[in-house]
Specification:
Belongs to the TVP38/TMEM64 family. Residues 68-185 form the VTT domain. The chain crosses the membrane at residues 9-29, 49-68, 80-104, 138-160, 167-188. Keywords: Cell membrane, Membrane, Transmembrane, Transmembrane helix. The chain is mostly helical. It has one domain. It has nine helices and no strands. It has helices at residues 3-31, 37-42, 50-64, 70-81, 83-116, 119-125, 132-144, 150-157, 164-197. Helix 3 runs parallel beside helix 5 and helix 7 packs parallel to helix 9 (164-197). The chain is globular and about 50 Å long. The termini are far apart. The model has no long low-confidence stretch (mean pLDDT 77).
Length: 198
């Protein structure tokens, strides 16, 4: 499969995922689940095991295949499961997904990576790979702070000589802050907008 075709398939999946997310948001808003936290939690069922497992799998999936924006799903996790459990489930799912895309990038190389990210993003960050030591520092900083395209950098890390062990440690230690900031910003930002529109 050519890069152009696989990129078109990924982009189509992403667009469909965003449209479904918008439709579900409107549907859930009409049901009043954003005003009633118990109704929101009821969406994942009463099972204390199945609900978190489904959510973690969705988080892994949204990292590997960008079906829905990661920030939205992170905020949803905190709203549905509460701040502590939601953060843990977000952390587990996103870390596993980040490790999977790194391994995919390493296994299938540049053609696979270019099918997942734009040429613009690839060209913007490919210079980071020129110096291994510099890349590891920049990569750790980018994962720690929610300012760079994490998933693209995780894919591109597969093109470097970074060991799997070091990569995993960077993800495990650097991801918590960005996950926390994304979740809180979307939750409190949403509450602020609701108050304005209210």
């Amino acid at each position: 499969m050519s890069i152009a075709l696989s990129r078109k398939i990924i982009n189509t999946i992403s667009i469909v995922g965003i449209l479904i997310s918008i439709a579900l948001t409107i549907y859930f808003f009409n049901l009043g689940v954003f005003k009633d936290i118990n109704a929101l939690r009821g969406l994942v069922g009463d099972s204390i095991i199945l609900g978190p497992i489904i959510f973690i799998l969705l988080q892994i999936l949204q990292v590997v295949i960008p079906i829905i924006p990661g920030g939205i799903s992170s905020a949803a996790g905190v709203l549905i499961f509460g701040p502590f459990a939601g953060f843990i489930y977000n952390y587990v799912g996103i870390c596993i997904g980040s490790i999977i895309i790194f391994l995919l990038g390493r296994r299938y190389g540049k053609p696979f990576i270019l099918s997942m990210i734009s040429d613009k993003t690839y060209n913007k960050y490919i210079g980071w790979l020129d110096n291994q030591s510099r890349f590891e520092k920049l990569f750790a900083l980018a994962i720690f702070l929610p300012v760079a395209p994490d998933d693209a950098l995780c894919l591109m890390a597969g093109l470097t000589n970074i060991s799997v062990k070091k990569y995993v440690w960077i993800i495990l230690l650097a991801k918590p802050l960005s996950i926390f900031l994304y979740s809180m910003a979307l939750i409190y930002g949403g509450s602020f907008l609701t108050g304005l529109l209210g």
